[in-house]
Specification:
The complex is a heterodimer. Helix content of chain A is about 60%, strand content about 5%. Chain A is mainly α. The chains are: A mainly alpha, B alpha/beta.
């Protein structure tokens, strides 16, 4: 399968994911689809996307599994939001473009989560409490005004 | 002279004896009478006349004689047809001061057959016994029928006739195998124990019959009582189980109550324990609830982390899309790519209307191209993601409310958990901790354990008691049933009480008779054994060889040499005869009744040298016992003649010339 049609993560992320599963961090487990895992992790890294140094060639998600509109929206929005003009929008709306950006968000998301769990010494309860506080702040920052 | 003596025998028309009398002399110092007669002269008929008179039987009669009428042939020949004639034999016996006359008479009617031969039709014979005290004929007693026959039994019992009237020739067969039973029966008769034996047998039969009846018909009340006792014992065991069980329960209850009393000081421990159990279950539910909560919270965090992190981006893209929509670029109304294609190919007619595009057309296309900056493809993509982005945005807006719900839910769970934990803490403190003042420490848990064990024990004992009480009930029912059976049997048993008493009496009688019988026969046997030996020795027979004589319980006689070897089987005919004499005489003596002996051929026809010893011994015996001997002239040998002639009363019998009558008797 062509590399363009597969979403990859960086080398070592598989083991990290396995550890997250084992520790039940954020309730992540094998029973949660790879797409949902990816959207959650990528959301943390969308502000400072970063390319992985070396990809894990086993791949993570087949692109043809991204077929629902919501999935396309979640995957493309991080990049589309960065477009400065219509031309960039047209460019960023291309799958291959936003897919590459999405992989970078994933890599950064892994890094951020890794730091978070290390900070709480893999205490999920504490981690989630902290995250909830962060979400409270995010909500207050982005949505309270909207409402 | 003492004993029973045949004084005379009277004949009337009896065979060749016709009418006449034979009297026996017993005035001398001996009672030996000898009749000498040729064979066929009436020697055996004499013996038969006695048995006919007494028993209406002629045991020694030959088949030839049996064919002849009892009536004397000469008398019969003189009678006309249908004339009546009587035949009579009368035996006069002296028994100390009594004279007993046995008389049998039988009437005959003369008949002549077709060939002119005379015969007789016999009537039944009749026995008459007349008992007279000597010299007092006025007091004669006449017995007939059964009384007469009973008198015969008293003097000459038919069962033992061959101990009185016998053929000496047969004596050598006296101890022949198979005769023991006859001898024993005879001895029992002669020793007067037959009656006792008969009574004994009768009593035994009666007892057996009644025993069978009792066993068959009488209720087995003993078995009923035994069964009742067995059940009563089982009931006692069950009652003991109940009693012990109740005691054990009382004890356990007392211990339990004591523990409860102790525990009561620490509150309602039972209820507390139950509450603790319930709370612990609730605590477990709370834990499960936490698990669900945490799981849902994690999902909430994952979802809203994504939504809120992306919200600015979502919002920005949505704003962009909405702006384009306001500008009319979305959704796209023209195909920009087609506009670009037309501008690049102005020299060709319009593919839609097939007219030239022209300058005005070119300007219009350029104006459109400047107006629409987003491609149709992008527009379509944006249009596709717009809806989901709006939904995501709306969902993100629900965070606060959902977050609040989670918070409240968490608080609620925590609150309930805290409540439970607090209560559990209190209960555990009550149940496990000690008295407030710290003294008199008790281990509530241990006491509770003990109390539970006691409760279990009480439960087990109650089960045992229940089972035992069921047994008791069953036993009572069984006892009631058996009592009813015993009562029924009791009323029925009264019917058998008489039978039981009779049986008891019969058993006692049987035992007594057996004892008496045993003593009599035992004494009799000993006496017979001693007397036989003495008489046998008196015959001087093999005095140096003869060692010992034994008579067993069946009166089988065994002779042993002095060396100890048995010699019974090797005895000669005369030796056997001597032994038989000794034995018969011993029986006579033992019987206590000194009856006469009538012996045909008393010392046989053998040439044994010792026969004279027998003759001599009999001569000696005749001093105290009447002996009537019947000899043929040949048997009455010279040595015997020398011995008996002048000593005994010797009478010679012969036949008349016409052979119709015996001569030598008183007519």
């Amino acid at each position: 399968m062509a590399a363009e049609t597969i979403i990859y993560y960086g080398e070592g992320r598989r083991d990290f994911l396995t550890r997250l599963f084992d520790k039940g961090i954020f309730g992540l487990s094998q029973s949660i689809s790879n797409k949902d895992q990816a959207f959650f992790i990528a959301s943390w890294g969308l502000r400072e996307p970063e390319a992985y140094k070396k990809r894990d060639n086993s791949g993570w998600i087949r692109s043809d599994y991204i077929k629902f509109a919501e999935e396309k929206a979640l995957m493309s929005t991080p990049l589309l939001a960065t477009a400065m003009n219509d031309e960039e929008v047209g460019e960023y709306a291309e799958y291959g473009t936003y897919k590459n950006y999405f992989e970078k968000c994933i890599e950064k998301g892994f890094q951020i989560i890794e730091k978070k769990v290390e900070d709480v010494n893999w205490d999920n309860n504490l981690l989630e409490r902290r995250v909830l506080n962060e979400l409270d702040l995010l909500y207050a920052k982005y949505l309270d005004d909207d409402i | 002279m003492s004993g029973i003596i045949i004084d005379n025998i009277k004949f009337e028309n009896y065979r060749q004896y016709g009418s006449g009398t034979i009297s026996f002399d017993h005035s001398k110092d001996n009672m030996l009478s000898i009749l000498i007669a040729q064979n066929g002269t009436g020697k055996t008929t004499f013996l038969n006349s006695i048995t006919w008179c007494l028993y209406e039987q002629e045991f020694q009669l030959s088949n030839k004689s049996k064919a002849l009428p009892l009536v004397n042939s000469k008398v019969l020949s003189d009678l006309a047809e249908d004339e009546l004639v009587s035949v009579k034999v009368a035996i006069t016996v002296l028994d100390n001061d009594r004279v007993v006359e046995f008389e049998r008479i039988q009437w005959f009617k003369v008949k002549v057959n077709d060939k002119g031969v005379k015969g007789v039709n016999a009537d039944t014979s009749e026995l008459t016994v007349t008992i007279t005290v000597k010299n007092d004929f006025s007091n004669s007693e006449v017995r007939r029928g059964a009384d007469a026959e009973l008198t015969v039994v008293q003097y000459f019992d038919q069962d033992i006739y061959d101990f009185y009237f016998f053929d000496g020739e047969n004596l050598k067969e006296f101890f022949a195998p198979g005769r023991e039973k006859d001898i024993k029966r005879s001895i029992n008769n002669i020793s007067q124990v037959s009656l006792l034996e008969n009574v004994c047998d009768h009593v035994k039969k009666l007892k057996d019959t009644k025993t069978r009846k009792l066993g068959k018909d009488a209720p087995d009340i003993e078995a009923l009582y035994a069964e009742k006792e067995r059940i009563e014992e089982a009931k006692r065991v069950a009652e003991t189980v109940v009693e012990n069980g109740k005691r054990a329960i009382d004890k356990s209850k007392a211990e339990r109550d004591k523990i409860n009393e102790t525990l009561r000081k620490y509150g309602p421990t039972i209820k507390l324990a139950e509450e603790r159990e319930s709370l612990e279950a609730d605590r477990k539910d709370i834990e499960d609830e936490w698990k669900t909560f945490y799981s849902e919270r994690s999902a909430f965090i994952r979802r809203y982390a994504m939504l809120l992190n992306m919200y600015p981006s979502i919002k920005k893209v949505l704003d962009y899309i909405e702006g384009k929509e306001i500008e009319g670029e979305l959704p796209p109304s023209i195909d920009i790519d087609q506009v670009k294609f037309l501008l690049d190919n102005l020299d060709q007619p319009c593919p839609l209307c097939d007219h030239e595009i022209g300058e005005s057309g070119r300007q219009h296309l350029e104006r459109l191209l400047n107006q629409y900056s987003v491609s149709s493809k992008t527009s379509n993509f944006l249009k596709e993601i717009k809806g989901p982005l709006e939904a995501l945005a709306r969902e993100a807006q629900q965070y606060k409310e959902k977050r609040k719900n989670f918070t409240e839910r968490e608080k609620d769970i925590q609150f309930r958990q805290d409540e439970i934990d607090e209560r559990l803490k209190e209960i555990n403190k009550l149940l496990i901790n000690y008295k407030e003042d710290g003294s008199d420490k008790i281990d509530v848990a241990k006491l509770e354990g003990q109390r539970n064990a006691l409760e279990d024990e009480i439960g087990v004992k109650n089960q045992l008691i229940g089972a035992a009480q069921k047994d008791i009930k069953n036993c009572d029912e069984s006892i009631e049933r058996i009592n009813a059976e015993i009562e029924a049997a009791g009323s029925k048993l009264s019917e058998f009480e008489d039978l039981r008493r009779e049986l008891k009496v019969l058993s006692s009688m049987e035992n007594a008779y057996k004892t008496v019988l045993s003593k009599i026969t035992g004494g009799m046997k000993t006496e017979i054994e001693d007397t036989t030996r003495r008489i046998f020795e008196s015959m001087n027979w093999k005095i140096n060889t003869f060692g010992e004589m034994l008579i067993d319980d069946n009166y089988s006689v065994s002779i042993f040499e002095k060396t100890g070897l048995e010699m019974t089987g090797s005895l000669s005919a005369t030796e056997q005869m001597a032994l038989a004499y000794a034995f018969i005489l011993a029986i006579h003596q033992a019987s206590g009744r000194n009856c006469p002996l009538v012996i045909d051929s008393p010392i046989g026809r053998s040439s044994d040298q010792n026969r004279e010893d027998i003759a001599k011994a009999l001569m000696e015996i005749s001093k105290t016992k009447q002996i009537i001997m019947l000899f043929t002239p040949d048997d009455y040998t010279v040595p015997v003649q020398r011995m008996y002639d002048g000593y005994a009363e010797v009478r010679k019998l012969s036949l008349t010339e016409d052979e119709k009558f015996v001569e030598g008797i008183e007519r």
